[in-house]
Amino acid sequence: MYSSSSRSPLGKSLLYSTAGLALMAMVPNTVQAQDTQSAEAELESIIVTGSRIVRDGFEAPTPVSVLSVDDLNVIATPNIADAVNRLPALQGSLGTSNASTNVSSGTGGVNNLNLRALAAVRTLVLLDGKRIVGASLAGFENNGSVPDINGFPGGLVSRVDVVTGGASAAYGSDALAGVVNFVLDREYTGIKGDIQGGVTSFGDDENYKVSLTAGSPFGGGRGHFLFFGEHTYSAGVNGNGKRPWSIPENSQALLKNPSYTATNGQPEYFHAKGVGVRATAGGLIIADDVNGTASPLRGIQFLRGGVQAPFNFGTQIGSFMWGGDYKDTNIWMWPTLDLEVQRTNFFTRGSYDITDNINAYAELSWAYTHAVNNSVVPNFEFGMNIKSDNPFIPANIKSQMTAGG
Question: pTM for the whole thing?
């Protein structure tokens, strides 16, 4: 039996078209699956910095300066704050060398960051993204609310993010000038030490620093322990006789000319060397009698142990004296140019991954700073009235006071 079949051209066209559509429909699914697998393979961890912005430097929406650990090592300053203070936006920040030597200011021996000189209280300082308690001797609001960078664990800092634009919208009014975030290397492993020392060309301000940094994992890598300890000392600069201005023979000042009048053509002030003040460390009797005549007690100074000795006033000009025993009253030997500072600080951190998504950690920091300065005796100490019934007056002085009425 003979049979035959045939398909029309239209049927063939529909068959070919249907097969082609099915093949094309399969292609996007295959490509999409490959792209998904590629994206999963290339996915990297996302790091959220304490600055709350992407660390892109000039490409960031807010100006950001980033100091890496390599940058900090190249600068190699005694403490990390001095390295950060070299940034233009932080010029004028309070450091241990330019802090006020007035103890009551509460800033002696501290190091505060001050962006654009808008006051340190308007610069938010973070340690690994967290706020730090302020440090101040006096505890005043304008100083006590500002952290002391000297107490930060410099050996554990991996980078410093400086947001030089206002960040108050994200952090509050204390970030009006910007944010400085010291990011720690939480996974540091190993041990390292740092020893520094130096002295000025004048032979003063002897200083040294000793620090130790350590880190180690534990618990099969689920936990990590960090430690940092540092001790520094700086002798400071004062009237120790090693600087030209502190040598007694170089004691000088601008004095008012007692012979000056508006018509005699003489200068109103003149520069003089060998200048001191009418005061001594142990005390000096400088008063005249009520009637204007010289007191027999005038010019008696008290040395160590209450020993009495005569004092030569030289030429008196106001509260200053020119010549005489000026070397014993050289006012330039008293002020402090650079504070004597001794500091010790410790930092430790322990963390543990309880689960893949839960991490527990604890941090402990401690810092101690001792600053010493010399200041000029206040003027009100130069004119104290001591009566004859004072129990501390020597007998011979008391008898002369009684005899003189």
Answer: 0.68
